[in-house]
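Final report, results section. Input specification for complex C-07:
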Amino acid sequence: MHILTASLAILSVDSLAQQGVATQSSGDYYPDHNACQGISPIAHKTYRPLKHARLQKMSIMMRHGDRVPVSLLQGDSTSYLLCNNPLETTSVSSPPGVYHGSTSYASPSMRNKIVASPEENLYAAAGAAYYWPNSNCEIDQLTGRGAAQTRAIGERLREIYVDLLHFLPHDLLKHPDDVLYLRNTNVLRTKISAANAFEGLYPERFRKGKQAVSLVTFPQSIETLTLNPVACPKLGAIYQGFVRSPVHAAHIKENAVLMVKANTVLGVALDPRYNTTLQGGQVLPRLCNKLSLCHVTNPKNCISPQEAQTLMEKSTFLYSRFLRVDVPGAGSSEIAKRLAAGPFLKNIADSIRGTLASDKKNGHHKVYRPFELYSAHDQSLDQVLSVVAEPNTPWPAYASTVIFELWQKKKGKSVVRVLHEGRVVPANKNLKCALDAYPVEVFLQFIESYVPKNTVAECAL
Ligand SMILES: *[C@@H]1O[C@H](CO)[C@@H](O)[C@H](O)[C@H]1NC(C)=O
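Structure output:
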């Protein structure tokens, strides 16, 4: 994955996580935060409809589920079978592959087998650091556990928005695109995550006929759900300024002992390409999947679960802080937020305005995009949270969600509610009041104030 990352112009966020990022503690807001498992709202329990109000729209951002580490323990030849259907690594044909018993594979009689034998492949020896021998997983892909997590999100959404609120139709409509807008980043693990969420929301028994729902994606080069320094060089420059800043150097120094330990266990302590990062993207998936966190040939040299957790938290420092803190020489965090989150916030704002304009009470199927799902990455959720939420919300876990709901109060005024990790997210102080029933027009003006007016000019160096 390091190789891929180096050659990919786009900073793919999860891959970036390996370069070192760090959060402060999740603190008082989310004491039950678990980086391995996001918390979904649960009908009748943690989810409560807004009183005396009617739901007009909901948009959910979802981080993909649990994934395979971004690189390996050097020299590890254990057989790992975390991916109970490795379809995603080879088959992208329609209909999308889905884990767990679905019959919707392109061909149920063909299955993928990843081969990494040095006899058959002369590159195998040289590339041994970058693939898992004896595994049914490719580096970076969604695991079976990750598929199940995102399936569960779809199931929770069904319990709330179909069974409890009767907001979405019980059965998938003949033209599902009229009601469901589904989008992912152009990455397989978010695609399979979206497919699983959809399977949870409308399992086969609630689908009559052969209708297909679209999964919308933007070309990666102009993706707005991830940090995109290619489309927006200025954003890349602010980020790189933060990487080189004394604030970041101090952070690395503060965590140097743990970092060296992690690098030693991972076998990259003497590799200058990788030995200056906090290794969150390597150790967290290992922790979440209960894989060894010990050195391959020196099994007494181990990272504890607590240390793995800390490495992950500290790894997110870079991504979360460059959007929240101004440091000398790096550029304004307010501008970074504008360039990073603004283009996607425009989608959210336009969509809410579209719904408001089209909503004629109770006719959900005629309302503009009443249900939206964005299958994306940790940083996608975080950059939106950097605008709307209190700065110390925890880094989004696997299968974490941010949900925007639009409700119309009895008196006719519409309000927005924003949920993260299953509860109302603490609001950014600039919003001046809570996000449990926020006046929609004020909310829209606030997020629109982050939308670049002229992206080309604002992104220029
Ligand atoms: C990284 O590796 C280089 C080359 O082996 C070494 O000189 C350097 O001290 C290492 N850095 C850390 C932080 O371990």
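The pocket of 2-acetamido-2-deoxy-beta-D-glucopyranose is lined by residues 260, 269-270, 272, 275-276 (CB under 6 Å). Strands lie at 53-63, 180-184, 215-217, 371-376, 401-409, 414-420, 423-424, 438-439. This concludes the modelling results for the funded period.
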